[in-house]
Amino acid sequence: MANLKYKVKVLGSFLAPIALILMLFAFSLPHEILPLSPVLKSFWHPFHVTFAFLGNAIFTLTFCCGVMYLIQEHQLKSKKMGAIAKRLPSLNLLDDLSYQSLKFGFPLLTLGIITGAVWAEYAWGRYWNWDPKETWSLITWFLYAALLHQRLTVGWRGRKAAIMAIVGFLSVLFTFLGVNLLLPGLHTYSKW
Question: For residues 168 and 190, what is the distance between their CA atoms, to the nearest angstrom?
C-alpha cells in the first residue's frame, strides 16, 4: 500500500527489523501446535484473528512512520543531514502516511474487538470478561481512538502524533505478546 501510493521504499528498512525481531521471538516459543479447545471452535475465530492481526500489522506501519518522522525532524532541526535523513521522505509525507495507516488500522482493530466479543459470547456466554488480553485490547483501542480524535478535531500533526503512534504500538506489542507472557487469563492457551 505505502509503496504503491507514496513511493516510500525506505519504509521496508524500518519494517524488516521489526519482522525479524518478531520472527526470532517466535522461534523461541514452543513449537508444538495445540488444538483449539472445542468450546473455542467457532465461525467467529478466523474473523477475529484476521481483523486483529491485520490491524496490528497496519499499526506497525504507523509506528514506523512515527519513528521516521522523529528521526527526520531531529535531523532537520540539528541541520546535520546524515545519510539516513537524505533517504527519508518529507515530514508532511510521513505524517500523511501515518494518518492514512491509522485510518485503515483503527477500523480493523475495532472489528477485531467486536468479533472477539461475539466469539466470547459464543464460547463463554459473555461478551466481555475483563480478561487481561481484552482489557489491554481496549486500552490499545482507546489510545488509537484518542490519536484519531486528536487528529480530526484538534488537528494534531507532526511530533505529537508521531509520539502517540509509537505509544500506541508499544501497547499493541504488550497486548499481542506481553499479556500472554506475563498475565494469565482466558487468552493464555499454553504453559511455557
Answer: 26
Domain membership of residue 89 (yes or no) is yes
Per-residue pLDDT reduced to its tens digit, 81-90: 777 777 888 8
What confidence tens digit (pLDDT) does each residue in 116-163 have? 999 888 877 888 888 888 899 999 999 999 999 999 898 888 889 999
Please give the residue range of the domain that contains residue 142.
Answer: 42-182
Locus of grid cell 506497525: 60
Answer yes or no: is 73 within a domain.
yes
CA 38-44-45 angle, to 5 degrees, is: 60
Q: Are 88 and 72 in contact (CB under 8 A)?
A: yes
Q: How many domains does the chain have?
A: 1
Does some domain include residue 8? no
